[in-house]
Amino acid sequence: MNWDIVLYIVIGFLAFSILFYCVMIAVASNRIYILTLKRRSKEQWGRQVSIITDQTLAMDAEGLKWQSEHDEFKREVHIVNSGLNLYGEYYDMGHDKAAIILSGRTESLRYGYYFAKPYSDADFNVLVVDPRAHGFSDGEFNTVGFEESKDALAWVRFLHEEHNVKNIVYHGICIGAATGILGITSEECPSYLRAIVTEGMFPNFNQSMRNNLKDRKKLMFPVLQCIDLWMKKYTGHSMKCGPIDVIGKMDKPILMLQSKVDRASKVENAIKMYNMCPSKEKELVLFETGAHSMLRITHTEKYDKSISDFLQRIVSTF
Question: What is the pTM for the complete model shown?
């Protein structure tokens, strides 16, 4: 037997196996990235309910009820930022304060209706928006808060300059929370953006995706690293960066709402970010139950009261 030939065959087989494995990982990671963060048609991530469950349908019904009760105050609004047409609805009840609802991935302005009530009850106008690549807005990729934070700041300036709103508060859910915190800690943040309320804020999207992949028993290494490479290729951003990298610059009031059993955004990370936050006016409210982005439907009274109490404390500082 010619052992040199056998050795070459073994080496060739191993090289082919490694190459095949790398190609499969690249294809699989790209597929996960595209399915998770790329809008492939205008029908995808529209204004309808994206995930249909008893809870989401109940949230949608409550949100539509709020909208119908305030329809007389609605103004269709539009801005252009980074070359993208962005759309929203502004509910102008005549106040000089406004809340901007920043929805999570796959959700649009209709989803934002559900979170408007505690703000309208506190005499805030309400702006709900279609994030880039959602609803009627232009865009192809969800950038997990990075480019969205620039859009959100453009909406802040729009309310101040076009509608004479003197004080603005963010309310962000999941990626909306990341969007808000990246914006409010930015050097471009105007003084009239006064505070932020977050629900289920993750430290970075890499950690959130790690939790989701773990729950689904998918191979995390090197899939996560490859997904991050695809994100850098398509958007120029890394999902290994996020709120935890900027929370140390937070100098405005913040209310963090967090479920102890949130599997996508772990409570221990929320506590870590809260402790890192140097803001003089900060509060972390923990909920015993409630799935990711489902806190208000699970604990409506406590959720709304937490926001109401927070707003009462900070309004005097405006």
Answer: 0.94
